[in-house]
Structure formats: structure tokens, C-alpha cells
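User: Let's play a game. I give you a shape written as C-alpha cells, and you guess the letters that built it. Ready? Here's round one.
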């Protein structure tokens, strides 16, 4: 810093000496040419005025540079320490203020990126923890079944029972892994939704086709009211996945001989898809929790599932600019309303 100041001072001194010599030579030449002392005094007064203005400008410029360098160093120190950016103090819109503003904006972007990376890392750790927790039960069951088959003498009938139980645990583990892959791909942004303007009728039909067999086993009556001419800009594959998850959830928690009704309405800005079941209903205090990953109510742990379907459904709908609304009461069934923007 001292060398920089010395260099600036030397430059100013050299410039002043050169300008002073040139001015004196000019005034002397003018006096010798005109022989008029008034010209000399006017020339000296003019030179003095120029020197005064130049000195004031240099002082002002050095003060501005000093303030800017101090502010720059302060901002850099805050960036290195990782704390909030210092407040801006700009009395007027000048070049230094513009540079300072851009620097602070750059700092804010870097801080937001750092926080985003930290949040993504925390989400990844949470996802890994959830996966490890969920796979413990089927793996433990498989280990126990395998040990029994290897170590205990069993009749053919018992052996078949254990093999069927093993197959069930493997299917659960496979379903869990596929669900985790879908979830992770959605969360890290690997999947790019291919939104096209197309009939919602075909998308809903694909979702309904996935639950008809399970609904038939429980003698659940499924009805749908969807006009075939309703067009919606959406990703057919993933929207069908979201609707299937909601419908599958409705089948699981609707008792035998129950009913599931699906209706589609076209609004000005949204297409509304209502999925109503005659299940046990959801308490109002829990309606905000059912979309959490792996959330399941205590009293339904005997029902097959891992608690990720509604979470996936909400993520898919949200990525397309829509949202899901739940209307339910204990003992009166539930209605999941999916709102998807038309464009």
C-alpha cells in the first residue's frame, strides 16, 4: 500500500513539475514577445488557478478512491467470513456506487448458492437416512426367513409359506427402491417434464387402469366423469403417476364395497381433478402431514404401503405449477383436488 501511495505521489509531483515548467516557459515567451507585464501577471494567476483546481480534484479523487477501497475491503472481508453483506451507503448514483452495488449483489448470489448447496446436502442426508430406515424392516425379515429355511427342518407346506413371505418382502423392497429412485430423480432435477397440450382423458384413463384390479378385489366401485375434449398442457407420464398414487391411496384406505368417484372440471385457468373416496377420512390436524415423505398414521400400519405416494404426487403436480387440496373429515371419506394450470 505504501509503494502504491508513493507511486501516485511521485506521478503527481512529476506531472506538476512538468506542467509548471511548461507554463513558466509559455509565460516567459509571451513576456519577451509582447513586453507587457500584465500578461505575465495574468498568466501566473491563470496557472495558480489551474494548479488549485487540479489539487482540489486530486484530493477529491483520492478521497473517493479511499472510500471505495475501504468499502471494497470491507465487503471482501464479509465474503471471506461468510456473514451478511455490509449495508450500502450511497448518497448519489456514481461509478463507485455502481461497482459497489454489483459487488454486493455478487456476494448475495454467492451466499444464496452456498445456502442452496447446504440445503441440498441436508436433504440428501435426510433422504439417505429415510432410505436406510425404510429398508431395515424388509431386510431383517428376509434375513430371518432365510435363516429359518436354512437351519430349521420344515414341511413342504411351511416352506411354501416362508417362500411366499420372502417374495412379499422382496416385492416391498423392489417397490421401495423404485419409489426412492423416482423421488431422488425428481428432487435433484434430473427429470425434465415434457409438457404438451393433450387431452387429460387419456392421462386419467392410464392412472385408472393401474388401480382397477386392486379395486375389483375389494369390490370397490370406481366411477369417472371426464369430458374427452378437455385439453391440458401437462406431462402425460408423470401426471398419470401422480394421479395413480392418489387413486392407489384411495383404494388402500377405502373398505370393501366402498366407492371412488373421479370428476374433471375445466376452469378458466386450471383443470380441477377431484378424487373422492368413502374411506375412513383424515383428521384436520393431520391433513398437512400426509404429504410428508414416509408419513403414515399410527392406526394404518397394517395397510400395505410405505408413505411415499402422496409425497411424489405433490412433487409432480408442483413441478407443473399446480397444487393439491384435501377436503376430509373422520368417518366421511376424503376428496383430493388436483389443480393443474391450463397453460
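Assistant: Ready! My guess for every position:
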Amino acid at each position: 500500500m505504501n509503494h502504491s501511495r508513493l507511486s501516485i505521489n511521485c506521478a503527481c509531483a512529476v506531472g506538476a513539475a512538468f506542467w509548471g515548467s511548461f507554463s513558466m516557459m509559455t509565460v516567459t515567451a509571451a513576456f519577451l514577445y509582447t513586453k507587457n507585464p500584465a500578461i505575465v501577471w495574468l498568466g501566473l494567476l491563470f496557472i495558480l488557478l489551474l494548479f488549485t483546481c487540479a489539487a482540489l480534484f486530486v484530493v477529491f479523487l483520492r478521497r473517493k478512491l479511499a472510500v471505495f477501497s475501504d468499502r471494497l475491503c470491507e465487503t471482501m472481508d464479509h465474503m471471506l467470513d461468510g456473514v451478511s453483506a455490509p449495508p450500502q451507503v450511497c448518497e448519489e448514483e456514481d461509478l463507485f456506487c455502481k461497482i459497489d452495488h454489483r459487488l454486493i449483489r455478487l456476494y448475495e448470489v454467492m451466499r444464496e448458492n452456498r445456502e442452496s448447496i447446504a440445503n441440498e446436502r441436508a436433504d440428501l442426508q435426510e433422504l439417505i437416512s429415510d432410505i436406510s430406515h425404510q429398508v431395515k424392516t424388509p431386510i431383517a425379515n428376509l434375513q430371518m426367513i432365510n435363516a429359518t429355511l436354512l437351519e430349521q427342518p420344515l414341511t413342504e407346506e411351511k416352506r411354501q409359506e416362508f417362500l411366499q413371505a420372502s417374495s412379499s418382502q422382496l416385492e416391498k423392497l423392489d417397490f421401495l427402491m423404485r419409489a426412492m429412485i423416482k423421488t431422488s430423480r425428481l428432487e435433484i432435477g434430473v427429470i425434465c417434464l415434457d409438457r404438451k397440450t393433450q387431452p387429460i382423458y387419456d392421462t386419467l384413463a392410464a392412472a385408472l387402469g393401474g388401480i382397477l384390479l386392486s379395486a375389483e378385489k375389494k369390490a370397490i366401485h370406481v366411477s369417472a366423469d371426464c369430458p374427452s375434449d378437455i385439453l391440458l398442457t401437462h406431462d402425460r407420464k408423470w401426471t398419470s403417476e401422480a394421479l395413480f398414487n392418489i387413486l392407489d391411496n384411495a383404494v388402500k384406505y377405502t373398505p370393501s364395497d366402498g366407492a371412488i368417484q373421479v370428476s374433471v372440471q375445466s376452469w378458466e385457468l386450471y383443470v380441477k381433478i377431484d378424487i373422492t373416496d368413502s374411506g375412513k377420512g383424515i383428521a384436520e390436524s393431520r391433513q398437512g402431514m400426509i404429504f410428508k415423505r414416509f408419513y403414515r398414521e399410527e392406526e394404518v400400519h397394517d395397510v400395505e404401503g410405505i408413505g411415499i405416494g402422496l409425497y411424489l404426487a405433490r412433487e409432480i403436480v408442483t413441478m407443473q405449477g399446480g397444487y393439491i387440496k384435501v377436503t376430509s373429515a373422520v368417518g366421511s371419506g376424503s376428496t383430493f383436488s388436483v389443480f393443474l394450470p391450463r397453460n
